Amino acid sequence: MKAVSSVFTSLLILLLVFGCSQDKNGGEKTFFLDLGQFTVESLGSNITVVQDGAGRRLILVPRGQSVPEGYEGMEVVRIPVKRVVAYRFFDVAVLKALGSLDTLVAVTIPKKDWYLTEIRDGMDQGRITYIGRPDAIDYERLKRLRPDLVLTWDIAALPMLKSLGIHAVVTTTPVAMCLSTRMKFVEFLAPFLGKEGEAKEFIKRVKRALDDIREKTSSHTLFRPKVMWGDIYEKRVLVEPGNSWIGQLIGLVNSDYLFEDVYGASCIEINLERFLYSGRDADIYFTYRTPATGATSKDALKAINPLISTIRPLQPGGRVYSPRPEFVQQQDRLDEIFTEIAAILHPDLYPGYRLKFFLRLPEHDPPAGDNPDGRRP
């Protein structure tokens, strides 16, 4: 319990404290934010230097202002950006959290995969363009859109974007985002959009949710559920590592994450034996699969891969949860997502809670026409 409290205290310090000083003119404050592998450094006069997930440094300068002395050789992005292209669901969710969806002009995910009404309507109305999958981008179409900024995970695309005169930032890293970075990533994109105030409000909201979760769960010592998060695929076994926001959140919610010792990228590969060994002790299992990709019941998961049938949560009475297909597009509701995970791990502390982002899988697929209630933790 002491260890959990210590981790939580450290997290709050990370969230609330950053370097700060007066600028040379004695007025505006400058500051430096360390967001995992991302950094944000204010130079004063609304000028900011950022480091993206690939370690690239860019300077953000308001339109019409001069680049400060000593930074002339750095890539300059004029702010606020008004036309943005996003590769990932997460990047779009951050734009939404900042109230900046109106800047989105293109995506690399087709309309059929979107659940957000704002994106589907934008594509129908021609305000948002589909420019092809990341491995088959229509660069001519992209150039015609005249974007100010591309949010991408694809480092290989950077030379082509540079040749077209298009600024880009890499919004992923080789290591999974920790809980603090997941919460504070809005502060990385905020200076591009002039939405620093909105970023602070978002973080306050998420912090309030975490405070409430900690208050509810910290004294709940009768049962610490053992949790696993991942899946077995045809040729690979993938899990969320202990350094991910998921692994850290589970630890904070007075629970034991069975892959806490695994370190690396999100959806990291481990061997089958380790997955099955951890599964012998698990109380709760989160699968990556959605109902749309086969996770309709525990029987359905066993049919997809019989090896998984040996883990404890898939036995009668075990608890298995599947993310709703729209879950990955709703990261602007991070406070609600954190609360829902806490309610799943400790349902007795959240009486009457109805699931919004996950479904509890039934033992068997229901008969045609039946619609079982999977909204109770």
TrEMBL record:
<protein>
    <submittedName>
        <fullName>ABC transporter substrate-binding protein</fullName>
    </submittedName>
</protein>
<keyword id="KW-0732">Signal</keyword>
<feature type="signal peptide">
    <location>
        <begin position="1"/>
        <end position="26"/>
    </location>
</feature>
<dbReference type="InterPro" id="IPR002491">
    <property type="entry name" value="ABC_transptr_periplasmic_BD"/>
</dbReference>
<dbReference type="InterPro" id="IPR050902">
    <property type="entry name" value="ABC_Transporter_SBP"/>
</dbReference>
<dbReference type="Pfam" id="PF01497">
    <property type="entry name" value="Peripla_BP_2"/>
</dbReference>
<feature type="domain" description="Fe/B12 periplasmic-binding">
    <location>
        <begin position="83"/>
        <end position="353"/>
    </location>
</feature>
